[in-house]
Specification:
Two copies of one chain form a homodimer. By secondary structure, chain A is α/β, with parallel strands linked by helices. Chain A has helices at about 5-15, 25-30, 85-95, 145-160, 200-215, 220-235, 245-250, and strands spanning about 40, 45-60, 65-70, 70-75, 120-125, 130, 135, 165-170, 175-190. In chain A, helix 3 crosses helix 4 (about 145-160). Chains A and B meet through helix 1, strand 1, strand 2, strand 7 and strand 9 of A and helix 1, strand 1, strand 2, strand 7 and strand 9 of B. Chains A, B: It comes from Oryzias melastigma.
Chain lengths: ~250, ~250
């Protein structure tokens, strides 16, 4: 681990010596979060860059350590403030995001799970960069010795929620070459919900979301889809009926 | 252009029919921006996912339309609200971000320009996604017929600011395969500064930044570097002397 040597220094600075279990969640959540910095997406939250791929693989030196076919390549950046809640959110979103077309060619309608596709998840602390002028600063990233077990637990969660054999990873802390064949291209940035200004509201939203996903998990029935689109239409911020058209035609 | 058909619908919805010259800047800036949505990085701003690459290329069907060696692969998402100011910020940051090591192996010390490296820039409207549950919505993306000339002008700006032959692109609006060999991996998300709550402050920051970059452009002299690191140390939000250590040792 060629950056583990900085972890203890970093931990002293950030004061993060907490366990990643639920007991630490509220304490971590109550800590003031840094303001959003222009430049890199700077507020402390878990971040993922998700690329839809035709195939992807990881090599370390000459050795190929991992490879997937069609699916998602996820670069995952864990911040010092992240907790199990952020992890759960990320896993759920990665597995349920509708970035694939269905059998009839309708875009943005299937998730990686719907299509029985693969996930290659690679730890990427540089997503936690804050720019100091033009120099990236990574103090917002969780130190490696804490991030590694946390990252492993996220992978385990993803494997449990999906199929273990379809979730691959890189080699934490190693210098890797990540070969990505971005299909489209389709790239989405994902951020775990930041500071819950209203925890009650947040819990409510989470529950709603989980209920929705349970309904979907029962099968992508027409009635389920209908309900989804109705919700969208009732949403005053949604752009009414044309949403489906836009989504499906604007497959890049 | 296989999504141009939706542009007029989109324009009617978003009301964006403005030119991308300076006269539109203030008007665009005054429009209320959507609040940050948990999930995708949802506030309207120009977004880039920058991957440091050993090599990268773009194919459309069987044809390779572009390829670079060592450098940066930039996926660029333009929002309905973006103006020339956002473009200038992005071009400056992409070209000056220090994501490469110098000759002595010191990480995070050279920009793509310092190393005479290449840039592959590919338009990527999906970075402007807002999640409606698990379905991506792209109404925050600038419609293709406006985005294409804007995107071309950004490329031209980048070529003028650097070397035209070292800045490549994909094929706007085409279904591409973007082959990315992410080196490290090193991935950074970049967001143009959003709603300028204090335009004066913002203008001041921009000027400071430009001055700094001019100084650097004269050559990466030791004295320039020294000044930079001093500034960083004086910055109360910076984490003092160890920053250099962290940056250089935490090369992934």
């Amino acid at each position: 681990m060629w950056f583990s040597c900085i972890s203890s220094t970093l931990r002293k600075k950030t004061g993060s010596n907490r366990k990643l279990d639920d007991s630490s969640t509220s304490a971590a959540r109550e800590r003031p979060r840094p303001a959003k910095v222009p430049g890199c997406c700077g507020s402390a939250a878990m971040r993922a860059v998700i690329q839809r791929v035709t195939k992807a693989s990881v090599t370390v030196g000459e050795e190929q350590v991992s490879s997937i076919g069609r699916g998602l390549c996820v670069l995952l950046g864990i911040s010092v403030d992240d907790t199990q809640k952020d992890a759960e959110y990320m896993v759920r979103k990665i597995l349920n995001l509708r970035l694939f077309e269905d059998e009839s060619g309708r875009s943005w309608s299937q998730s990686v799970m719907d299509g029985n596709l693969e996930v290659l998840c690679v730890s990427q602390f540089t997503l936690q960069c804050i720019l100091k002028g033009n120099k990236p600063d990574f103090h917002a990233a969780m130190p490696a010795e804490l991030a590694q077990p946390f990252y492993n637990s996220i992978l385990e969660d993803m494997r449990s929620a999906y199929k273990p054999e379809l979730v691959k990873d890189g080699k934490f802390g190693a210098k890797m070459q990540v070969h990505i064949q971005n299909d489209g291209p389709v790239t989405v940035e994902l951020t775990s919900p930041s500071s819950p200004t209203d925890p009650k509201q947040m819990a409510k939203q989470e529950k709603q979301q989980q209920r929705k996903e349970k309904t979907r998990a029962k099968g992508p029935t027409e009635s389920g889809r209908e309900k989804g689109s109705q919700r969208s239409r009732q949403d005053p911020s949604a752009s009414s009926g044309a949403e489906g058209d836009v989504s499906s035609e604007r497959e890049p």
